[in-house]
Write a structure and sequence with these properties.
Main location: membrane
Distance between the termini: 25 Å
Number of strands: 0
Radius of gyration: 24 Å
Subcellular location: Cell membrane
Order of helices and strands: HHHHHHHHHHHHHHHHHHH
Strand content: under 5%
Family: Belongs to the major facilitator superfamily. EmrB family.
Pfam families: MFS_1
Number of domains: 3
CATH class of the largest domain: Mainly Alpha
Largest sheet: none
Keywords: Cell membrane, Membrane, Transmembrane, Transmembrane helix, Transport
CATH topology of the largest domain: Growth Hormone, Chain: A
Amino acid sequence: MNKTMNPTARPPYGILAVLMIGAFIAFLNNTLLNIALPSIMVDLEVGPTTVQWLTTGFMLVNGVLIPTTAFLIEKYSVRRLFLVAMGLFTAGTILAGVAHVFPVLLAGRMIQASGTAIMMPLLMNVMLVSFPIEKRGTAMGVFGLILMSAPAIGPTLSGWIIEHYDWRMLFHFVTPIAILVLLLGFFLLKDQKEKVDIRLDMISVLLSSTGFGGLLYGFSSAGSKGWDHPLVYGTIIVGVLTLVAFIMRQSKFERPMLNFQVFKYPMFALSSTITMVLNMALFSGMLLVPIYVQTIRGISPLDAGLLMLPGALVMAFMSPITGRLFDKFGGRVLATSGLVITVVTTYLFSQLTQDTSYTHIVILNSIRMLGISMVMMPVSTNGLNQLPARFYPHGTAMNNTLNQVSGAIGTALLVTVMSNRTVTHTKELMQDAMQKMTGQPTEAALAQLEQQVGMQAMLEGINDAFFVSSIIAAVALVLAFFIKRSSQAVDTKEVSTKMANKVATENS
């Protein structure tokens, strides 16, 4: 047993602090890169479909490795896993910072991803075993404050760095901090773990990698290639079939790599479903607002980052407050209230115009982030609270994996809606404009008309995507009414094992 993980002892604040700093750096790096993609395209001479692999490849590595983290957490100590994860992240950051061709940059990003994939489930598991259920909401709230600070400052910091320095400075900025955190972990983490005799089933790893990797790749590619592309539906079909085989194989093992029995606990299953659905809707704001403000309104990257900053700050500072409210009132009140706010504000985002003010977007986005902050952490914590302790690694791994998959699905769905509706609106608006014209238009007038129609059509496509997103959020709202306050379920296997040990001791 891990000596520092005794739930009756004082929480290991030193371990938690080191883990949180490491997770913060990993989160910050992800938010820094998004605004830098246009600069990377120009400098390395790659197109949009190629540069998106910096995001898609990161998600794929996460989707492949996260399911194995339940096994890794059971097998190895926190210290060992943290040093490996932070070492990989640091090595990837250094490699990406010196990249002068795209394949090297992509390799650096994927090495970073391999470290990040271990970091997040590891931190969540330590949080769960370190605090009793009645204090977990507050603990998770503080955890959320620290992690949500990364997306709060990331876009603005990135916009400033890109305007003043080369994009590689994003990685050079993170590198010394990552090295410092790695050294802190090496000297401060002293936990030990008794040797655990479990082995990783390589067939399960292969099935998991193919299944989750196929789904992530298929949905991530749908936005650029279209749903009718053989590579898109082919990889999704292969992913689904392989995932079914993976689940069936796991059910045969006494100690599976990823235990799907977590879904036998109703509050965990419900919380996972709500989080997945909301995660799909959440990507509308992250994806569509930057497109609207930069492409249609012509706002600079720095001002676009500043526009998102108040909402991210609201989400960060609300995290400890919602944590305390969760401990006091439970998850349903927070989730339903937050989802009402999310649905209404997402619908209002579907009413954007060419003249919507900067202030209006900032306020609307901030209120939307307030709603989302009332849902994500409380719902997730309520679901994990129902699991017996031995299922914690599997619950956190499952949640993180499903978040990756739902994010890919949400992105693909909303990009498809926006693209298809933009094409439809372009045809309709062009036809109306041509009917209103008198005489034969000049080439210059026609070009100007096409540009105006194209911008208006894209705006309408973005509005349609936000409307679909509001419907998705409404589904999560309906599900939230079924939330009940969780208490830890009795682990029948653990009880029977203790009884058997007690009988054996008495007989001896």
